[in-house]
Design a protein that fits this description.
261 residues; Ubiquinol-cytochrome c chaperone domain-containing protein; mainly alpha; 13 helices; single chain; Ubiq_cyt_c_chap
């Protein structure tokens, strides 16, 4: 007779296998970043039921504002590390919801499976796009680290939401995902610096599967990546460092080249 511990371990392993390989409703996968949820949940008891329009507006004197801002600086609220952590939540949130916001393109037009791996791969692609832009900033390395931290916190949270409670199994999957992440970053960097066929090959290895995708699908996403890199290159540093970012909508069609316009 199997012990309770053995039965529990097998149950965890079975749920983990189904989670990573089976089809999962995308609405149960895409959610706000876990840290954002923690912050919101922790402060719910302080929320007022009064509407913003009806609530009295408080006016503070310039002296009070200076005292508050001065105290915030003394407490490190405006330090580089604190600013990077706050901005990373907003930057990551935009990356994490790309599958949900562009479900038709990724799941229908490109025929990607509706599961955790698709969410992880597409989110990783957008995290990488921001990483490329953040490298040009003075404190870009710190922002990148916090952005990646948010990514893996969210990935781990999603595993737990799908019933994987074994710390050993979660740690094993996180190590695999981390290796996949680093491999994808290197491959996308190479494709960005070389040419479209190299970038398409990186997408084929990291986003598509042997049973999904075709030449047109690869070309659509290559076109999308090149466009987003150009937009991000021209993006205002202040907005980026404040976490204010947005991506364009990918399309299953080819945009005319400048010579055709």
């Amino acid at each position: 007779m199997l012990s309770a511990v053995t039965r529990a371990s097998r149950s965890n392993a079975a749920r983990a296998s189904h989670f990573l390989t089976g089809r999962t409703n995308i609405k149960s996968i895409i959610s706000p970043a876990v840290c954002s949820k923690i912050q919101i949940g922790a402060s719910n008891k302080y929320y007022s039921t009064d509407s913003a329009d009806n609530a009295p507006k408080k006016e503070y004197s310039e002296t009070t504002k200076k005292l508050v801002f001065g105290l915030a600086r003394m407490m490190g609220y405006y330090s580089t590390s604190s600013t990077a952590i706050r901005a990373s939540h907003d930057l990551y949130s935009v990356c994490a919801k790309q599958v949900e916001e562009n479900k038709k393109f990724y799941l229908q037009d490109c025929s990607l499976p509706d599961n955790f791996q698709t969410w992880f791969s597409i989110t990783q692609l957008h995290v990488w796009l921001l990483m490329v832009r953040l490298r040009a900033e003075d404190h870009g390395k710190l922002y990148i680290q916090e952005l990646v931290n948010r990514f893996f916190e969210d990935a781990e949270d999603k595993m737990r939401l799908h019933g994987i409670t074994s710390g050993r199994i979660i740690n094993s999957y996180v190590k695999d995902l981390l290796a996949q992440f680093h491999g994808g970053v290197v491959a996308y960097d190479e494709g960005m610096c070389k040419d479209d066929p190299v970038l398409a090959a990186a997408l084929w290895r990291n986003l598509f599967t042997p049973t999904t995708g075709n030449a047109n699908d690869l070309a659509y996403i290559v076109q999308y990546i090149r466009r987003e890199l150009k937009i991000l290159d021209e993006y205002d540093s202040e907005k980026l460092n404040d976490g204010r970012i947005q991506f364009s909508t990918p399309v299953a069609s080819f945009e005319p080249s400048k010579s055709e316009i």
